[in-house]
Amino acid sequence: MTSHPREGYADRTAGRRGDPGREHKGHQTHEGPLDAATHQPGVTRRNFLTAVGAGAGAMGIGSLLAACSSGANNGTGGTGGNGGTGTGLPLARPNKPVRWPLFSDNKPIADNLQPEKGATLQIYNWVAYLNEAVVKNFCKKYDCKYTLTTFNTMSEAVAKLGSGQFQFDVFFPTVDVIGQLIETKMLRPLNHSYIPNIANCWPDYQNPFYDEGWRYTTPYSIYTTGMGWRKDKVNVTPGWDMPWQAAKYKGKVAILDDYREGLSLALLRRGIYDLNTTSASQITQAGKDLQELSSLTGVRIDNNDYTDVPSGKTWVHEAWSGDMAASYEYLPKGTSIDVLGYWFPGNGKGPVANDLMTILANGKNPVLSHLFMDYLLDVHNAIENYSYVGYMQPLTAVTAARLTAEHLLPPQLASTVVTPQDFRTGVMELELPLSANALWEQSWNSFSKGL
Question: Which CATH number is associated with domain 223-350+429-448?
Answer without folding.
Answer: 3.40.190.10
